[in-house]
Specification:
heterotrimer; A mainly alpha (about 270); B alpha/beta (about 260); C mainly alpha (about 260); A: mainly alpha; MetI-like fold; C: about 260 residues; PhnE/PtxC (chain C); membrane (chain C); transmembrane (chain C); ABC-type phosphonate transporter activity (chain C)
């Protein structure tokens, strides 16, 4: 008897809980769909879509190489260079941040590492394009602002990943360095770094893949790379130009992803 | 045989260890080890064997008492003095504690770290004499052919023997071995124990080892110490040790030792 | 004593130094190509700091005007994630090799999905603003495509890890493929799917905060206005609002994902 009563009450509770969540989700969706103030879609939408697709099918092949430093190959190379230098800078900055944010003992609260984590979370959330605009104020429009924006923004993610790999290392080798009479620097050089550097390199490559994507859009705010000519082509409705740039981005990013993935496998 | 007039190389005086969470690891340990002894510590897991071992080179901080290494207190030493004392005490670990991503040679050379200024070792500028020392140590443990390989390509037994080679080049007075054979199969366990034995007999190093296996303890020890619940309950030269004594250390129901 | 022979690669640490030299070479080449002028950064750093100082004094009076666009941002992310998911479920089933055994079909659709995933969010936003005009429509479409690319991959990789036993059982009893999907696949993957959807929602909230910069609705519009009017005190309020919302959504979503497991 007791058992069946308990069973029933648990069932009722379970059912109310499901109802509660279901209702909550419905409310959220009603709010989301009816709350949003959809303006009218512009009447030319159909025609523009067609034009964009036509542009991709008939891309402006002349733009690929013109030898004037303004062509697709040049701006794509510039995009890659921005992502590359930005990643190197951020990897370098991330190392001390990672040691700051890494917990020394598992499941142990520490003010030091928590503060490091918060700083990294804020950096990660600070929008990249706002950083780019801030750096444009300082160094003027162009690739350098893009490099700096990526270099700073990526620290948020790389610092976190690096910190996690520091936390994951085996404490044993460090202990053995102490036991032979080594000091803290010896421990870092002979035990910690050999364990974390492969992971650092692998995460940096991964971040490079993401940074290449970011670098393609930083130009839209004036921070160098393919984004500037792309936005210009969209605004002047040169859809053939847009088409070739899209193709260029898709091919470049695909190749970079593939190469980087292969390199990361070598490291692993 | 140990001669009574020799000064102890390890002198543990009234050592107690209470962990942060309040549990007691060691209580009032008194122990003298003379140069050239091969001491094996036996006891159940949790009896405090590892804690005692790690107190000897101060990987663990003791709560009370002193540990003297060759007459100098390691429990009070700081900075450079502590590191110099540790240089005289090599340690071999159950999990080998090698840097798996580095080469065998680099792991063995790490045994010389205590002899170098930091900048020099950090740049990897080890003297030729020390490299020769490392090769010789690897030859002793039969791994010279693996010298340039990464440690993670070696088997567990080979890794432990690399750790032994590291202890060789450290040129210590004392070798501590904390469950050196617990992760190894019986055959490799013997190889590693033979390495320790040759360090003890040919090079005159004092060896203190924790062992789980009673058979290995009887085979290699010159003296056996029994530990139970953080206290020394048994301490005899090997010729006085009987199987019944050993069984008592593990079973806990005994008249031996100084139970309170 | 006989030392083993060291290969040249081992002797001179070719792999390590080789990578280092390639890395340095690429760095110098990139540096020359981009004509980076690090002295400009040092010289103009006071301007950067001045801007930063202005942002340190947020214009709290503008805070109420941030609320409505911020809510629109979340709504865009919600609808975009949902539409992306609805499209992703059939797409993932077609791309999963244990459901569709024809390698040509899975290979072809995967190439298409990979291509979609190479396009970053703001690029899609710029395109959709040109197509449908300024406003949240463009943002929702952007996030739909963006999350479609991400979720499809997570989903088909997830489907491929499931236990194939029930699949074969249904086919063996003469069941149709649609029955296989309904009764053998979805029950096995649903909790992981929800976890991925929440994860994508987190990323979409982050992305949707800046889409408005190009006119695709949400808080990004205000961000663009404040920056173009040099009202960095207002920019600061918007960024703070983004920080709070993004971190709160991350926290909630993380909590929900942990409860799911």
């Amino acid at each position: 008897m007791m058992g069946s009563i308990q069973h029933r009450s648990a069932g009722v509770w379970h059912r109310t809980r499901s109802w509660f969540w279901g209702l909550l989700i419905v409310i959220v969706y009603v709010w989301g769909i009816f709350g949003i103030n959809f303006s009218k879609i512009q009447s030319s939408a159909g025609a523009v879509t067609k034009a964009v697709l036509m542009g991709i099918i008939h891309p402006d092949w002349h733009y690929v190489y013109q030898g004037n430093g303004e062509d697709l190959v040049s701006v794509m190379l510039q995009t890659l260079a921005i992502a590359f230098v930005g990643t190197i800078i951020s990897a370098r900055i991330s190392i001390p941040f990672a040691f700051w944010a890494a917990k020394r003992r598992r499941h142990h609260f520490s003010v030091l590492s928590t503060s490091g984590r918060i700083v990294l979370a804020v950096v990660r959330t600070f929008p990249e394009i706002v950083l780019a605009i801030m750096f444009i104020k300082a160094v003027g429009p162009g690739a350098f602002a893009g490099v700096l924006a990526l270099g700073v923004h990526s620290v948020g993610m790389l610092g976190k990943l690096f910190a996690e790999s520091i936390e994951a290392i085996d404490a044993g080798p460090g202990e053995s360095i102490l036991s032979v009479g080594g000091n803290a620097v010896n421990g870092l050089v002979f035990a910690t770094l050999p364990q974390v550097l492969p992971a650092f390199a692998s995460y940096s490559l991964y971040r490079f893949e993401i940074s290449v994507r970011s670098a393609t859009i930083l130009g839209m705010v004036g921070a160098g790379g393919v984004g500037t000519p792309l936005l210009f082509a969209i605004q002047t409705r040169s859809w053939n130009r847009v088409g070739i740039i899209l193709i260029g981005i898709i091919i470049t990013v695909t190749i970079i992803d593939y190469l980087s993935g292969w390199l990361r496998k070598q490291l692993g | 045989m140990t001669k009574p007039e020799l000064k102890p190389v390890i002198d543990v005086q009234h050592v107690s260890k209470i962990y942060d969470n309040g549990t007691s690891g060691l209580s009032d340990i008194n122990l003298q080890v003379k140069p050239g002894e091969f001491v094996v510590i036996v006891g159940l897991s949790g009896a405090g064997k590892s804690t005692l071992m790690r107190s000897l080179n101060r990987l663990h901080q003791v709560t009370e008492g002193h540990v003297l290494i060759d007459g100098r207190s390691i429990t009070e030493a700081k900075g450079r003095n502590l590191r110099q004392l540790r240089r005289d005490v090599a340690m071999i670990f159950q999990n080998f504690n090698l840097v798996k991503q580095s080469t065998v040679l680099r792991n063995v050379l790490a045994g010389r770290l205590g002899y170098y200024p930091t900048w020099q070792s950090s740049l990897g500028l080890f003297k030729e004499a020390d490299k020769q020392r490392a090769y010789k140590a690897l030859e002793r443990v039969n791994l010279l052919d693996k010298v340039y390989q990464r440690v993670d390509q070696l088997s567990g037994g080979q890794q432990q023997r690399v750790a032994v080679a590291r202890a060789f080049v450290q040129d210590p007075k004392i070798v501590l071995a904390d469950e050196p054979t617990a992760s190894l199969d019986p055959k490799t366990a013997h190889l590693v124990m033979n390495d320790l034995k040759s360090m003890n007999q040919e090079l005159g190093k004092t060896v203190v080892a924790n062992l789980h296996s009673v058979a290995l303890a009887k085979e290699y020890a010159t003296r056996i110490i029994g530990l139970r619940a953080g206290r020394i309950v048994y301490d005899e030269s090997i010729q006085n040790v009987t199987d019944a004594d050993l069984a008592d250390i593990y079973n806990g129901d005994s008249s031996v030792g100084e139970r309170q | 004593m006989k030392l083993p022979k060291q290969t040249i690669v081992q002797r001179f640490h070719i792999r390590f130094f080789g990578s280092l030299i390639i890395l340095l070479g690429l760095l110098i080449a990139s540096n020359n190509f981009l004509k980076l002028d690090f002295s400009a950064l040092v010289q103009n750093f006071d301007q950067f700091l001045a801007l930063f100082k202005e942002m340190m004094h947020p214009d709290w009076k503008s805070a109420p005007f941030v609320v409505q666009p911020m809510l629109e941002t979340i709504q865009m992310a919600l609808i975009g994630t949902t539409l992306g998911t609805l499209l992703a479920i059939p797409a993932a089933i077609v791309a999963a090799r244990n459901v569709v055994t024809n390698k040509w079909i899975t290979g072809f659709v995967r190439i298409i999905f990979n291509m979609i995933r190479t396009l970053p969010d703001l690029l899609l936003a710029a395109l959709f603003v040109a197509i449908v005009g300024i406003g949240p429509y463009a943002g929702v479409l952007t996030l739909t495509i963006f999350s479609f690319g991400m979720i499809t991959k997570l989903f088909y990789e997830c489907i491929e890890t499931i236990d194939n036993g029930p699949l074969e059982a249904i086919l063996a009893t003469g069941g149709k493929r649609s029955a296989m999907v309904m009764f053998a696949i979805l029950p096995q993957v649903s909790s992981r799917f929800i976890s991925y959807i929440l994860y994508t929602f987190e990323i979409n909230v982050r992305a949707s905060t800046v889409l408005g910069y190009l006119g695709a609705g949400g808080i990004g519009q205000q961000l663009q206005t404040s920056l173009s009017q040099f009202r960095y005190d207002q920019t600061a309020v918007i960024i703070l609002a983004i920080l709070i919302v993004v971190l709160a959504i991350d926290g909630l979503s993380n909590f929900a994902r942990e409860r799911l497991q």
